[in-house]
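Structure ticket #2291
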Amino acid sequence: MTKNIGHPFVVAGLFLMVFAALVMLDALTSLAWAEALFGLLFATLGWLLRRRGLSSISVRWTWTRFLMVAVPSLPLLYVAGYFILMDRSRPTDPVCERHFQSSLRGVHYSRGWGHWRHYPDVTLFNIVFQPADRFYFKWFPRSDADIERLRALGYYQ
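Resolution: structure written out below.
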């Protein structure tokens, strides 16, 4: 068994574990349990990828295959992740420093200053998917009925 830190699965696994740590830290500070579950999933996937990379032998051929698959699939995974993970019907809290048009599915409503509000908390996924959010709402703006529903909750004042 070779322990090669330059193996693509080891690199991808370590990257996923670091990203998972950031997601879980963000989830614990905002008590967003759905985000914590996604972080745990990323950590497990990273650990399994890293272990697989430690058992492989041919580093050069594996890097070639990895790049041929990873580079074209990353934009597809980003777009698919946006549509699977983000709820485009619920924007985040309008009084936050950054306001996002969609929120992570399963995140509870914002606590605000000691009371519950009708807005989901901002998570790390809002920042990751901010470019997709801007693109989506530029080309597919909200309908008048959606705007009125959100206006009743305090948006668009």
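Closing remark: Strands lie at 86-87, 103-104.
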